[in-house]
Amino acid sequence: MPSNDNTYHVSVLLEESVSLLDIKPDGIYCDLTFGGGGHSRHILSKLGPKGQLYSFDQDRDTLANAPDDERFNYVESNFRFLRGAMRLRGVEQVDGVLADLGVSSHHFDAAERGFSFRGDGPLDMRMNQRGGRTAADVVNNYDAETLGRIFKEYGELDTTWKIASCIVRAREQQPITTTRELVEAVKPCTPKRDESKFLTKLFQALRIEVNGEMEALKMALEQSLKLLKPGGRLVVISYHSLEDRLVKNFMRSGNFEGKVESDFFGRAQTPFEIVTRKVVVPTPEEVERNPRSRSAKLRAAAKL
What we know:
Layout: H1 5-8, H2 14-20, E1 28-31, H3 38-46, E2 52-56, E3 72-75, H4 82-88, E4 94-100, H5 105-109, H6 135-141, H7 144-155, H8 160-173, H9 179-185, H10 195-211, H11 213-227, E5 228-238, H12 241-253, E6 261-262, E7 268-269, E8 272-274, H13 284-289, E9 297-303
Parallel strand pairs: 1-2, 1-4, 2-3, 4-5
Antiparallel strand pairs: 5-9, 6-7, 8-9
Helix pairs in contact: 2-3, 7-8, 7-10, 11-12
């Protein structure tokens, strides 16, 4: 297992995101998506000897990337359990929370994890491989209507009923158990011009469903608000419009619909001050160095 962040995963918007955390040398910080450890190492470089960093990851493989630093605390957990995990460690409030919601390059490149259509491997897609349903379970057991809804909501695909029908017809012949078999199953409804884009969205939708990513993100955002000290920073890097919309609405209003409530005097009731008035995106130089950063959007807010 590689322990070098550049081989496991190239950190996206590294300087920008850590800078927006506005790190206090003796502060307590959470990195909700440890992965290759790039963001965590950069946070540690800004902390003084009394600072503490708690880095979350549900994928046990990432433990191999952990830095040997007494200020570093590895939390093997889904970030949906953020507040409970911190309370177990005696921490009631923190100065900042960072989440890079991207999937590590390691996962896309490891064919045996089943995240990418570019290789051939088991149709798995679980971040936590110790249990839970796989993408094969979803593809083979969900009815056509549910599959269509997932592809529409999480993949933002068109004619999802056709895609679901293709999958149902294929699985009636034999179970779909590998990434290549899934690509073959949807071939009749795969557009010739945008094949790569179509398959990217299809695999994204399945990954989100398998890992319960939207629900986990909502829970993490709500718990971050409760965990942050006044003035504490919430910094999130998202990669598709579904995530970005949730983050934007929550930072703006404290809810996921983006509806700002007003008090008796008509003053907006919002739990955050937006720090990034305009969404931050990678520079052309970063996109050239790391094409997977292309869709990244960074937002930050300070708790009032």
